[in-house]
Design goal:
The structure is a single chain. The protein has 125 residues and is mostly beta strands. Helix content is 0%, strand content 53%. The protein has no helices and 12 strands. The protein has strands spanning 3-7, 10-13, 18-25, 34-39, 46-51, 57-59, 67-71, 77-82, 91-98, 105-107, 110-115, 119-124. A hairpin with a 5-residue loop joins strand 5 and strand 6. The protein is globular and about 40 Å long. The protein starts with a strand and ends with a strand.
Length: 125
C-alpha cells in the first residue's frame, strides 16, 4: 500500500522560502503523476504543481516563477521549493499521487486519489 509522508511546512514572513518534501513509501514507485495541492482556510483544495513520469511539470498560475517542483533520482521523494511566499500561499499542503481513492481531486486532466496527511504552511504579512 502506498503512503505519502509530507514534511517541511512552517511559518514564515512574506518574501520568505520553504521547501516541502514528500516521501513515497510502501509499494515501489511504478510511475504516475505526482503533485502538490493546497487547501487555504475555508477554501477548496487546489492544485499547485504536478510532475509526470517523463519529468514534465505543470504549475498553477499563482505558483509560476516562485515554486519549483523536483523529484529525486530515486523517484521516491518529491520536493516543492517555494520562494517569495505570500500570505495567500497559506494553507495545508498535500502530496498526491495519480489514481483512484476515497477522496479525489483533479489538476488539469489528471485525477489524484492517494494523499498524504498534509503539512501546514503559514505566511504572515
Amino acid at each position: 500500500q502506498v503512503q505519502l509522508l509530507e514534511s517541511g511546512g512552517g511559518s514564515v514572513q512574506a518574501g520568505g522560502s520553504l521547501r516541502l518534501s514528500c516521501k513515497y513509501t510502501g509499494t515501489t514507485y511504478s510511475g504516475g503523476t505526482m503533485a502538490w495541492f493546497r487547501q487555504p482556510p475555508g477554501k477548496a483544495r487546489e492544485g499547485v504543481a504536478s510532475i509526470r513520469t517523463d519529468g514534465s511539470t505543470t504549475y498553477a498560475e499563482s505558483a509560476k516563477g516562485r515554486f519549483t517542483l523536483s523529484k529525486a533520482k530515486d523517484k521516491d521523494t518529491l520536493d516543492l521549493k517555494m520562494n517569495d511566499l505570500k500570505p495567500d500561499d497559506t494553507g495545508m499542503y498535500y502530496c498526491a499521487l495519480e489514481g483512484w481513492g476515497p477522496s479525489m481531486a483533479t489538476m488539469g486532466e489528471t485525477t489524484f486519489g492517494t494523499w498524504g496527511q498534509g503539512t501546514q504552511v503559514t505566511v504572515s504579512s
